[in-house]
Amino acid sequence: MLGTEPRMVALFSLLLCAGVIDYRTHKIPNWLTLSGTAVALIYAAFVPFTPVHGFIWALGGMTIGFVLLVPFYVLKVMGAGDVKLMAMTGAFLGASDAFNAVIATFIVGGIASIFFAAYHRVFGRMISNVKAVTELMLISAATGVKAGSPTQVVQSVGKLPYGVSIGIGTTGYVIATQLGII
């Protein structure tokens, strides 16, 4: 379903732009994510992949991208721009592909985090942070009450421009799908 059609060219261009901006400024601008989301939704409404893969399909992808990343924003381990970028990506891909792109992004982000921590010699602190965030998420899930922020417990190891991971993970997923690897 995915391919070199105009919506994928637009998505890859937006992801490249977001990755470069995030790498340089550690921010992903709203104008990019919001206009990209609007383009994806409007395009899906007027030029659906198939009769059943139109606006609602794109809206579902946007929701999946948003919902899967927003807990990390709530825990303050990810920025709002990253969440909006993944929601935009989901609007271009649709629900099932958005879910798989998020998984690919998590894999790329995890690998990038390991290299980032090793390069900055903060690997032990990163492991402690992952442990603390995991504990907070489990407490929140078990009790239904929002646990405290991990920033109260642990010291940051630095800022990783996650927009780069979103771009690489999504692009890798789409290419692997086209090549029949996935």
Characterization of this structure:
- This protein has helices spanning 6-25, 30-46, 55-74, 80-93, 95-119, 123-143, 162-178.
- The protein has 182 residues and is an all-alpha fold.
- The chain is globular and about 50 Å long.
- The model has no long low-confidence stretch (mean pLDDT 87).
Jot down its keywords.
mainly alpha; 182 residues; globular; 7 helices
In brief:
The protein is mainly alpha-helical and 182 residues long. The chain is 74% helix and 0% strand. The protein has one domain.
List the helices and strands and how they pair.
Elements: H1 6-25, H2 30-46, H3 55-74, H4 80-93, H5 95-119, H6 123-143, H7 162-178
Helix pairs in contact: 1-2, 1-4, 1-7, 2-3, 2-4, 3-4, 3-5, 4-5, 4-7, 5-7
Please bin the fraction of helical residues: over 70%
What string gives the helices and strands in order? HHHHHHH
Figure out the total of helices: 7
The general outline is: globular
Largest sheet: none
Assess the beta-strand content as a share of residues: under 5%
**Low-pLDDT stretches:** none
Query: In whole angstroms, how far apart are the ends?
Result: 13 Å
Number-wise, the strands total 0
Structural class: mainly alpha
How many structural domains are formed by the residues?
1
Gyration radius (Cα, Å) is 17 Å
pLDDT average, as an integer? 87
